[in-house]
Amino acid sequence: MRLIDDSGEQRGVISIEEARRTADEAGLDLVEVAPDARPPVCKIMDYGKFKYLQKKREHDQKRKSHAAQLKEIRIRPKIDKHDRDFKVNQAKEFLEAGHKVQFNMLFRGREMAHQDVGRAVMDAIIQDLAEASKVERPPRMEGRRMTVLLAKK
Description:
The chain is of the alpha/beta class. 39% of the residues lie in helices and 32% in strands.
């Protein structure tokens, strides 16, 4: 087997017994790091410390990673231009923070007969957010609501 000592230097190809004796003299563990290599590669290290540092690194990565949330914005087909612009600005902030944005347009009563008005409002919103987002799921009707899902470009 090929042996790498605790300082990271290669000791060359030696027998298993000699590698174990070297690890025992150093008070460390003999760990096989590449079993498929010819000859297999083993390293002398403190295995408990190695596992501890590996777990700590994984924990730090999880803590630093930011899971994207789905933000929902509700609108109506008869929304005013100013109100729509306000919702679009809110969506831009969510997208810049790395979240996905789902617009839900709720239809009530006679509004169901004028879905083309709702589609026009959705298309206007998509156009306003075109430079900041991409359409992940195009506008479609689901019962009495029309939804569109936008993600950061």
